[in-house]
Amino acid sequence: MTKNFFNKKGVTLVELATVLALVGIISTLAVPNFRRQVKIYKFKEDAEMLTMTIKLARVRAITSKVNHAVVIDPSAKTLTVYKDPYGSNIQIGNTLTFKKINYIWHNFVDNKLIFNPRGAVLKESINNGFIGWIGIWNIDWGEPDWNYHGLWIYRASGLIYRHWYFS
């Protein structure tokens, strides 16, 4: 007489425990990686907003034929775009606040990156006079991973070069 394994009804407690143990092991391995990916995604979102805000200021300076400045507040982790920073100093849009960035460093004089109507950076707004840079970091001390996004802004042309690092 042969047994028919396909006519069983239900599952045994051992089978159920085995499946639950496997699901627990797999989820334990997947959750830390998922959290890390979410952290990187949120950092990339802030990095894209930084890049777009600086590009917006440059494009507005070209189209309106008036100087535009990006004002950076490293302690508050904010960026604000102003039209005509040496004249009427009108704020354009809302202040951008970064949520997933620990540090902002740059080499702009008085925390301002100023674009002229040709789209180039004003010489007075960059400390070394040739290349402006801004870098943002997301570092959790005690954890092995960290993220970096940097921009180099060439003074003469206003062109922006991006570089990334994700650990």
Summarize the main sheet: 4 strands, antiparallel
The N- and C-terminal alpha carbons lie at a distance of: 61 Å
Radius of gyration, whole Å: 26 Å
Supply the number of structural domains: 1
Q: Which shape, going by the Cα principal axes?
A: elongated
Output mean pLDDT: 82
Give me the number of helical elements.
Answer: 1
According to CATH, what is the class?
Answer: Alpha Beta
What string, H for helix and E for strand, traces the elements in order? HEEEEEEEE
Q: What structural category arises from helix and sheet content?
A: alpha+beta
Kindly describe this structure.
The protein has one domain: minor pseudopilin epsh fold (3-Layer(bab) Sandwich). It has a 4-stranded antiparallel beta sheet with strand order 3-2-1-5, with helices on one face. It has a 4-stranded antiparallel beta sheet with strand order 4-6-7-8, covered by helices on one side. With 167 residues, it is α+β, with helices and mostly antiparallel strands. It is 31% helix and 32% strand.
Task: Give the secondary structure arrangement, pairings included.
Blueprint: H1 13-64, E1 68-73, E2 78-83, E3 90-97, E4 103-106, E5 112-115, E6 131-139, E7 146-154, E8 160-166
Antiparallel strand pairs: 1-2, 1-5, 2-3, 4-6, 6-7, 7-8
